[in-house]
Fold these 3 entries.
Entry 1:
Amino acid sequence: MLLGKKKKNIVGLDIGSSAVKLVELKVGRGGRASLVHAGVAPLSPEAIVEGTIMDSSLVVEVAGRLIRERGVKNPNFGVSLAGMNVAIRKIHLPTMSEAELAESIPWEAEQYLPFPVSDANLDYVVLETGPETMTVLAVAAKKDRVADYTSVVSQLGKTPVLVDLDVFAIQNAYEYNYGAPEDRVVALANVGAYLTNINILAHGQSVFWRDIIWGGNNFTEAIQRELHVTREQAEAIKVGERVGDVSPQTVFGIINAVAQDFAEELKRTFDFFYTTSAHDRVEEIVLSGGSAHLLNLDQVLKDRFSVPVEIMNPFKEIAYSETEFPPEWLNRHAPALAVAVGMALRTVGD
């Protein structure tokens, strides 16, 4: 507890498969946040493979350069995890005291996790308590994966004070900027290079979480395969740059086909959600992540699900200087910075 002390801000460091993203906010009186630092630095694809840091020295080098270029002095950093090395489970238990719960939760969680509790860092929060039963949200992350990511922060000469999950960081950024959706079911889809994080909110609460192995890399690989170009050329084509004599119509056709596949993957996830909850319809989709801006992706999802599809602006309610952060730059990178914003909205000891 930081009694009598001003809460300390956290620098959100989102170490993704294709880029390192950084955001620092200052939260003033009344809870209004303003942007202090923001940056994006590309990572070569061999640095992180399928969510595993393969070359930590390269990640440290890229993140360190970004920190120096942005002049970040704050020592308190947060990182975020996703994928097969984290697990979120809602567990129903007989009602018990806090002390009893603390003692029994590792044994109870063991039955629901895809890896041994002894290999994981485990945290939990009580969602509901009734006279006979209680609902607990258990969150686990593999210790070696946590160590990999916090080690990067330590090697940067900073202090790792927060380990978050992408799905919760995205929710934090969304709710700060748009409010909790009390009247509808909203699916947050954070489309990264390797993974898409899904967090479904219903009537002000997060009710479903899933990471699916699908992202911007699928589009890049399809362009490489169809057009016989290098990965670098495919990445450029994907974001609308002209390469050689490749026609925009050809690119549109490839991206559209992959977007249709993504829509099917999303439908399977929604169908699973419907079978495990009292809800039978997602009423809005909000995209974030580095691949959210991909050509026509939002329109394909609108057509497929017949619901509004919005690209999240995680700076919608955050004040910033247009001199320091040109709107064109911020708008281009905003969806990719959503996880970092979600972490930066937290404080040390939060």
Note: The chain has two domains: 11-85+141-221+249-344, 86-140.
Entry 2:
Amino acid sequence: MVRAPLNHSKGRQEVEIGLFCANQITSPPTCIMSFAETYQSFKSRDFLFLWLGMLTLMFGMNMQMLSRSYLVYELESSGALLGVVNAGSAIPMLTLALFGGVIADRLDKKRIIQTGQLMAGLVSLVVGILILTGTVSWIHLLIASIVQGAFFAFLMPARQALIPQMVGPKLVSNAVALNATAMSFTTLAAPTAAGLLYEFIGPGRVYLIITVLNFASIIFTFFIKTKGPSTRSKNGSESDSNHPKILIKDMLQGIKYVRSNSFILILLAIALSTTILAQPFRFIMPIFVVDIYELKADSMGLLVSVMGLGALLGSIYIASVGNRMRGAILLISSYVSGLSLLLVAAVPVYLFAAVIMLPLGLGDAGRRSINQALIMEEADEEYRGRVMSIYMLNWGLMPLGVLPAGFMSDWLGVQGSIAILASLLIIFTIWVTFRYPRVRSHQ
């Protein structure tokens, strides 16, 4: 630990530390300034309400992810159908995300976000009613997955593009890390809540609780004042600027902009590799729980929650270190994820898997938050919505990564499927480490 000189104007000691603070006998605790720096983006009132809205929305989405996956496998006992349902959101995300980025660069971002939150609430309400009336099938869950992918294609680029306008360029990395902290908390708490509630009150009532959380996110977003500047004034009237030809032209300009920036391209490739190779494990986890560990939904909730704990600790650490060694941490996080998945595949013991979920969550936090922050910092403001919509394509491809993983689990076994994906992730990370030195040396 290295301490900076005492700053009397601030009336406290500034310290340069990571995640942990040290108590000293002869001086005050040295973690005060570090704590303030870790959460400094919350000084922006708008960002705080955006964060709270995201927290409630993603808490519901993580509850839904577990409930839907377990319900599909409970209904059909098929890894392939589990992959198909989770892949449903990929279709609209892949086809609409680029248009979502154009819309985010042109229209009121706050209203786009609220519309997406409203759609999330309506979808979960309909699914809950179908379950309670005993008419739900995997087809209904597939349709719900498709609709949710559609609103995320517009919601997420608008939300990500709004963050730098709220906190300023110097705090982008901190704000993204705090977002990752919220995501990690929901990953920690929501699956446990969903797993327990699934067992005691049933999936239908779980979906009604998810509906309440989705509508609560709209209320938080209502208090946001920042709407985000529109580019309509640069392109004529509103009706002209929203003409399909103009929208397509802007979309192509966004693609051209990304292609011209090699650093953004490799960051997008890193995001794509980890999305396709690491994330599918979350979706086919029910197969591990049911077939390998021979346990129930609450046991799956514990695994996901331990993973969330690791991601939570990792996100807090990344928020505290600021803009130091981010490229190296990004690559190390990818290695940690790959090795953790290999261990899960190799050792079919539930308690061992629960322990490995911690480093798996740590790797996920570093990969997600640093990658997003670097992309957002590198992108010019007028293109940020479109750049983040291209980043969103990774999320659209994530369910497609689940699809081959689901089929491989039926053919080779779920352990063999995860082992293959983990090995590919490690190989790709080694290639990036030696092929792109700018990534590993980036601050």
Note: The radius of gyration is 22 Å.
Entry 3:
Amino acid sequence: METLLMNMIYHAEISSFPAKIQMFENAFEIIRPLIYLTDKELKKYVQLIDYTPLPYDCPFAKENKREHFKQLLSNITKLNKNGVANIFKSMGHIYKEHLPVK
């Protein structure tokens, strides 16, 4: 959901990451089998399988705006407990006839 909102705000497009995508002219394929888990479910899964994540050492971490969007999604959840799930579901329910023509 963070990626969706970031793309909408910074790139004026409705896009996110699908569960499977070819990247960089098919140089490699990203497969995300846990895409439908919530953060809470993913944290529980990590505990269940006793997984130790690798350190986060992204060279762009200081420029990363993702944390702002995590907070935004947290605020949305405070407004409506199903808000984030509804935003996710809305990607599959786009009614073009109800949108302005560009």
Note: The chain is about 40% helix and 10% strand.
